[in-house]
Amino acid sequence: MEDLVWALLVPVILFIVIIAPAWLWMHYRSKAQAQTALSANERAEMETLILQAERMLERIETLEAILDAETPDWRKRPER
Prior knowledge:
Blueprint: H1 2-34, H2 40-70
């Protein structure tokens, strides 16, 4: 019976002393890395995407204005 207790107790102690702290350290390190700010390259890419989205929005608004002028009921048409 005593051998069975030691057979279970040793792995549990090793887990608590070695594996659990390493696991927690790696978990919170990865969380911290995920929350870091954008790099300069990522920030530049984001600015480019924002500018492209703004230009696309202007184009869509222009196209909708043209359609409103030429075909006032274009929004009411049933979809196919």
